[in-house]
Structures are given as structure tokens and as C-alpha cells.
TrEMBL record:
Domain Dynamin-type G: 1-211
Record's protein name: Dynamin-related protein 5A
Keyword Nucleotide-binding: yes
Organism this protein belongs to: Panicum virgatum
Transmembrane helix found in the keyword field: no
Origin: domain of life: Eukaryota
Coiled-coil residue windows: none
A GO CC annotation given for this chain: microtubule
Amino acid sequence: MHQPRKRYTDFAAVRKEIADETDRETGRSKQISPVPIHLSIYSPNVVNLTLVDLPGLTKVAVEGQPDSIVQDIENMVRSYIEKPNCIILAVSPANQDLATSDAIKISREVDPKGERTFGVLTKIDLMDKGTDAVDILEGRSYRLQHPWVGVVNRSQQDINKNVDMIAARRREREYFSSTPEYKHLAPRMGSEYLAKMLSKHLEQVIKSRIPGIQSLITKTIAELETELNRLGKPIANDAGGKLYTIMEICRMFDSIYKEHLDGVRPGGEKVYHVFDNQFPVAIKRLQFDKQLSMENVRKLITEADGYQPHLIAPEQGYRRLIESCLVSIRGPAEAAVDTVHSILKDLVRKAMSETHELKQFPTLRVEVGNAAFESLDRMRDESKKNTLKLVDMECSYLTVDFFRKLPQDVEKGGNPSHSIFDRYNDTYLRRIGQTVLSYVNMVCATLRNSIPKSIVYCQVREAKRSLLDHFFTELGAREMKQLSKLLDEDPAVMGRRTNLAKRLELYRSAQSEIDAVAWSK
């Protein structure tokens, strides 16, 4: 893999490159490196197998090696053989005591049941005369779950003479078939048998792990898709694509905002709370009794009469008293408009935080927020104008039927023959105050229903209908460079999205291949 574009056809060149790369990595010393050298071999004469050639376990450091070399090698070996999917080849020389084999010892530690450990016995041909390894190979001396396999490798002399592997394998077969002690074991001895056995075992392990692998791949694909969705779609290069992306993100935000108002998401209920609780309470707190105190009624009635007292009923006095009371409703009406405005702005902030695509582009997020707030400000101003008009309408024209239904003074015991100035007595003024209060209460009940309608029509309805209309109109006139500024995505996010997309493609490809294998089996 350190020369991905170069292919080798001569194994002598392969050996030399491995030696050279080792020297480059370790500096021509006897040290070790955890960096692996990857070599892929393509041939019709090899099995499907990945072999990891680890350094042999050692007990002491030789000259040129650090004192930690013993532990370093063991840690490196353990990092591989501890993996549950790893098949362990515990290689031990036949001319040494198996009880002292470091390979068997460490294999037992990481694989106590021996489910993935294969014993390999080397140097059988170098055993002392009169001794053999039959007891070990037949499992009587040291039993493993899988049978032992004996191999005869090239000697150092053969390596020096460049004896090729084909000749070495032929000599290995001849050794087992011609040696009386191992003749009966010959069919399951040798490197070729070991390779086939390992390949078959690996296939069986893979088959047993396919459901787990499928589950893991499916889970990983779902995680990658979720992460990609969170990061958002890649940005288009052309102006039309950029404009479409911006419009789609704005529509997503607008849709979430409407869901808050319509009750699909929380928040819209606060508007109703203003109409059902805050606004009526504010009206009830208006102190009409101050405007309708005896002194104030006498003052306004007298002032309204001017130089000539009223003859029958103080109409102008009534109007001034009613107007002075109704004008005070403007305060709660304006407060209701402003409170709903604040709620609508809060829902904009909430909808923006819930629109994941806006988080992808900070500049667009700011512009959309500003555009929404500006629209809400215009709607608030229009709503306030119309709402106050409702109050002013009540001041400008009184409901005549209310006064026509009032009893006349004579019916109430009044005496029209009395001096006109007698009508300014306390009883008379008190009755005027009560009449005005009844009328004002009637108007308050009317406004309590009509003002919320005005606010909803001018603010809530308009916010649902045209929150970003001005922004969309302005957006259509922007040039390519301005659109690009709105989609100012973090380069790190763009790189992560690309990497995730590549990983997702690989996992989907793996999923298809594994599914095909699973179905075929």
C-alpha cells in the first residue's frame, strides 16, 4: 500500500521491497514498528485469506534493541490476537519443549476455549533422531480444539540458494509422504493443507458472522445517513441551484413556524393566553370609578353645558364622560398587540433553532431572522393602527339604542318643573355615572371580542401567510456572489460531508455484496 500504483511480478523484488520498507521504517536497526506493510497477492493458486505476519515473541533484548522490546512485541501481538474475529496461528518449533511455547501460552490467555487457535508445528525435519512429533500432531501430547498441522519450511541454506516456493512445497509433500512416522498423517500435513484449512475455517466463521455483520452495517448506514441529514445537502454550484437551496431552507423554517402557531409544536397557545387572560384582566384593572367619581362627573357635565345648562339630558356631558373612559382602553389594547408581537418573535427564534438546515449557514440564518423580525414589526404597526381604530370608533359613535332603553327622569321620580340647576344634585349625577359605567362595560365586552380578532387578522394570520414574502422578493434580485455569501458553509463541515458520503457509499456496496452472499448460501 505504500506503493499503490506499482505491481510486482517477481517475488525476489517483493522480498527486497519488504526489507527496504522495514529499513525505512525502523532505520536499519533491529527495532520493531507497529506500522504494518500491506501486500496483496493476486493468483489463481492462492486461497482467499488475509495473513498477518507478526514478529516472534522474544525473552531478551539483543544488541541494538531497547529494553522494552520484549513488552513492545507482546503488546503488538496482543493488539491483533485479542480481536474476536482473528484466527490465531500458534507457531511452535517441534525441536523444543511445547510446555515452554510462548505462542501457546499467549493464545491460551486470549482464547481460553481454543475456538480460534490453530497449532502449527515447524522444524519437524530437524528433530533429534529417534524422536518424532506424532503425539503432538495427533493431539495426545497437547490437545487443541482444532487439529495440529505440521509444516516443513525452507532451511536457511535453501533461502540462500534461492530455492523457490514451488520446489519447497514439493519437497515438503515428499517429506511427509516418505517419512514412516508421518506417512499416515501426510494428507493433513503441510503448508498447502494449512492454507486450505484456514481458508475453509475463515469461510465458516464469516458465514456465522454474516447476520452480525449485516446488523452492524445496517446500523452504521443508518448512523451515517442521520449524520449526513444533520449536516444538510451539499451546496449547488450554479445561481439557480443556490437560490433553490435558500428557498427550500426558508420554506422548511416557515413550515416549522406555522406548526408552532397551529399547535403542532408548542408555543402558539401563548397567543390565546393573552386574549383569554391577560387582556381581559388588564381591562378589568382600568379604574373607571376615578373618571366617574362625583366630582369628575359634575366637572365634565358642567363644562360640557357651557354658559347654557342642558334642558333635558346632558348629552355632551355623557359623550365626554364616555370618551374619557374609553380612551383608557387604548393602553390594554396596545399592550395586547405588543405582547402578541413578542410571542411571534420568540416563535421565530424557536423555529430557527429547530430548522437544522439554517444552522448549516450562519449568514443565511441571520438574514432570515432579520427579515422575519422586520415583517413582524410591520405587522405589529398595522395591527396597532387597526386595533386602536376599534377603540376610536367606539368613542366617535355611541350606540343610540342603549340610551333609548334608559328610563326617563319622570319615570324615576324626577320633576321636570324643578329648576334646571336642581339636576346637578348628587342623586342625579350618581345616576349619570352609573349609566356611563354600564355603557362603558358594554363597550369593553364588545372590544374584548373584537380586539383579539383584529390582532389575529393583522399579526398571526399575516405571519402565517407572508412572513418571508419581502425577503423572497428581495432574494430574486440578488446576484450569484450575494447568494454564495448566504450559503457560507464551514469548510470543515463540507469536508466531513464528503467523507461521510464516501463511507456511506462503501457501506452500501458492502451491504449489497454481503446480502448477495447471504442469499446465495
